[in-house]
Amino acid sequence: MSGEWIEVCAVDEIEEEDVIRFDHGERTFAVYRTDKGHFYASDGYCTHEKFHLSNGLVMGNVIECPKHNGRFDIPTGAAKRAPVCVDLRTYPVKVESDSVFIKID
Length: 105
Prior knowledge:
By secondary structure, the protein is mainly beta. It has strands spanning 4-10, 18-24, 27-33, 39-43, 57-59, 62-64, 71-73, 79-81, 90-91, 93-96, 99-104.
């Protein structure tokens, strides 16, 4: 997978079990930090009704959309609870020098 690594934020800008919004160009992403301290990234909008997931609730490895409470698996993007039935696209994440980067194609 080709693409470029884009710096999102400092590691300490995302609390454990939290999500932030990251906009780059015309695209928007959700960047997560799980309760285990792992970082992940996905498309920013819920696949059900295009509501931004940065307003959602992170519970372990799950993000719950604030609009209709649909859930996705954070590491894989898999739809986990109705009304969502389409998976989220996920992106590689790395941490270097206390900064979080995502790889965007």
